[in-house]
Amino acid sequence: MMCRRQVRLTATVHSESDVLSGELVSGNYFPLLGINAAAGRVFNSNDDLHPNAHPVAVLSYACWKNRFTGSDRVVGSTILVNNYSLTVIGVSQPGFSGLEPGLPTQIFVPVMMTPKLFPHDDFSEMFDFSTALGERFRAIETGNETRQRESGIAAVVPPHSGERGRAAGVCARNALRERAISENVA
What is the arithmetic mean of pLDDT over 6-34? Predict the structure, then answer.
């Protein structure tokens, strides 16, 4: 299971501000999708344990190339996001810009940073189990691997579902990853 939410973020670098398409994501977002870093590293579960504990960000490859001219110096640098300092720890692999077709994500931030980035908003429903997977994810317990693979919908596979359920989850994860990469490359 993973969490993601599409948001708009204001990023300021060298006194120049832009509104960026962002995603608040759980620490297992990149590992679950099989997405690696082109530079630095992507998030892991340690980046998403406690609210406001890890003020870090990962840039999309396209944002890194376009906004930061592909500079190796961006990893480790600090950017102001919604008036809060975040350290850029990495750049996602080429071709991956999030999971929303037609709305490429430029910056990824741990979901646990939500209280600092949006202090006046109520995101409490985001942490409700029924919505924690985001708009694109739904629980599928049918065990029908073909339907899951074709739909590109990630499965939430209960631990008691056995080998068939785990295989369905892997198929759904791989289909989602391939679909996200292919749709963002075009």
Answer: 93
- pTM of the predicted protein model: 0.69
Q: How many CB atoms are closer than 10 A to CB 91?
A: 25
Secondary structure (3-state) at 84: strand
Contact 169, 37 (CB under 8 A): no
Tokens coding 178:
């391939």
pLDDT at site 2: 85
- b/e map of 143-152 (b: 16 or more CB within 10 Å)? eebeebbebb
CB contact at 8 A, 75 and 91: yes
- Token pair, residue 167, equals 């295989």
The DSSP element (H or E) to which 17 belongs, if any, is: strand 16-25
